Amino acid sequence: MRGKTFARERLAAHGDAILAAVEAGVTRFRPVCMTALAMIIGMAPMALGLGEGGEQNAPLGRAVIGGLIFATIATLMFVPVVFSIIHGRLAARRAHKTPGKESGEAYA
Hints:
- The chain is mainly alpha-helical.
- Helices cover 78% and strands 0% of the residues.
- The chain is elongated and about 65 Å long.
């Protein structure tokens, strides 16, 4: 069974997938950015190659920082867009179904 996420709760509350995705994105913006920024700041000395033998680990630090930046942008932009597209299509599909045909009812 799927967990009840904030976006799904908002979708159930008002039925608009785009509005639900925007509300969920606004709610999660600060925690996601704070977590990513803390990790990026923590990796900065490694990426700068400071200390004895730091130039060996600098590429790893830069790769981690780049990955974090990409993942943060994807979390804040790409995921809500995909959520709204998928749930918007599901809602449209449900709205176009005709009642009675899928249940196997026969009319005499």
